[in-house]
Design brief:
F-box-like_dom_sf, F-box_dom, about 425 residues, At1g61320/At1g61330-like, three-stranded parallel β-sheet, F-box domain-containing protein, alpha/beta
Length: about 425
């Protein structure tokens, strides 16, 4: 009797049009991923690269518009300039409009423009602000760059009148460069703004004060080359401000109240820094309750001349206002006249302080000036927790300056002679 092989017939599971691999599992394609995951992946790509994915297939033609962030950089969008300025601007405008057409009616969380400012762009810039409002944007960036030989006062005037109450409350991050801020009288600030970056922005003291006073949630403030030529003052407490950077700004005084400030970076001329509502610097005292109680790291960039070396006193005032500071960096940039200058304060003029938590002190641009040496001695004699002190005597000087090595060697000897013996027992001194 013959033998028969009995085979069980099985019905393959549906794969919804997907091919089956050799192991019997569906071959998933990139486009089969959830839309939110694809959006996350695309958001990691530069805008130009994300747009280029549209050529992969018909399904990918509009896939890049799932990105909730638009960042349009002139260099990336238009390439290098090969034609005149007007044609280059028009090319940028056309490319931006093509991109924005694909986002009509969609929500855009972050919208940014980076391009050289030209007056022929004004109408389009206003139009793009309106787009950000309609797209319910939370992060807005207009990073404009001045054209060579352009007038400094010829800047884009931000159109506050195009904002509605919803967009004013919705904005959380603003980045403005080479823009003029002239808020109207009805403008009451951005109540939910958390991050503000201003670079080469023209704004008056009063206008900036009114804006900052009404940005009650502000946590991060960066100002670079904003020439107020006046005080930077905020009368109301900035209760959430944790990061503050002020660099190369023409200001006469900094006056604010920010109890949660943890990072403060200042680069510029020495100016009074006041933490309360008085303009008298002598109210910086140990019993002053208004301090930077959360500040752990201070970074100061100071340009001084020999006749202004008494301003080194301000360094002690800043440290006194930060009782819990752990690391202090002071970077001096000065002229040749400061080498071993005898002008400057003595440490007894700085008063007695106690820096209980200071562990790391770094000073660069040391030239052996009396004020610099007295400041170092003041710090060393008033701290017990110091672990490391680094003093750098080197400086960016012309290679042809044969005096550099000699002067630096004398400055290092000065430090060794006066500082080492005053150090706490466990502290290490590094002289460069």
């Amino acid at each position: 009797m013959g033998k028969y092989l009995m085979c069980k017939r099985t019905t393959p599971k549906p794969t919804h049009g997907k091919e089956i691999s050799e192991k019997g599992k569906p071959n998933l394609q990139f486009e089969d991923l959830p839309a939110d995951l694809i959006c996350t992946i695309l958001s990691k790509l530069p805008q130009k690269e994300a747009i280029r994915t549209s050529v992969l297939s018909s399904k990918w033609r509009s896939m890049w518009t799932l990105r909730s962030k638009i960042s349009l950089d002139g260099g990336a969008v238009c390439g290098s300039r090969r034609r005149g300025q007007n044609k280059y601007c028009q090319r940028f405008i056309n490319n931006v409009e093509k991109v924005l057409q694909n986002y009509q009616g969609k929500m855009v969380e972050a919208f940014g423009i980076k391009f050289e400012f030209d007056s022929i762009l004004v109408d389009n810039l206003n139009k793009w602000v309106s787009f950000a409002v309609s797209a319910r944007t939370k992060h807005l960036s207009f990073d404009l760059v001045p054209i060579r030989f352009a007038r400094c006062d010829d800047r884009f005037i931000f159109p506050f009148e195009l904002l509605d109450s919803g967009s004013i409350c919705r904005l959380q991050h603003l980045q403005f460069s080479f823009i003029s801020l002239q808020p109207p009288s009805w403008f009451g600030g951005f109540p939910n703004l958390r991050k503000l970056e201003l670079n080469l922005v023209h704004v008056t003291r009063k206008e900036l004060e009114n804006m900052l006073c009404n940005c009650c949630c502000l946590e991060w403030l960066r100002m670079v080359r904003c020439h107020l030529k006046d005080d930077l003052r905020v009368d109301r407490p900035m209760s959430h401000l944790a990061y503050l950077l002020i660099s190369c700004c023409v200001i006469t005084k900094i006056e604010l109240h920010a109890t949660k400030l943890s990072t403060f970076i200042y680069e510029g001329e020495f100016v009074p820094i006041v933490l309360n509502h008085t303009s008298k610097l002598n109210l910086w005292s140990l019993d002053n309750s208004l301090k930077f109680s959360c500040l752990k790291h201070i970074q100061l960039f100071a340009h001084i001349l020999s006749h202004g070396s008494d301003k080194i006193l301000y360094l002690a005032y800043v440290m006194r206002a930060a009782p819990f500071v752990e690391k202090v960096e002071v970077h001096f940039a000065s002229g040749h006249s400061l080498w071993f200058a005898q002008e400057g304060p003595l440490r007894h003029e700085l008063g007695h302080d106690e820096y209980k938590y200071l562990k790391n002190l770094c000073v660069t641009g040391f030239k052996g000036a009396r004020g610099q040496l007295e400041f170092l001695l003041h710090v060393v004699e008033n701290t017990t927790a110091l672990d490391v002190i680094t003093v750098d005597t080197t400086e960016r000087m012309l290679e042809s300056d044969i005096k550099n090595d000699y002067l630096c060697s004398i400055a290092r000897q000065t430090i060794e002679l006066h500082i080492r013996e005053a150090l706490p027992p466990k502290a290490k001194l590094f002289v460069l």
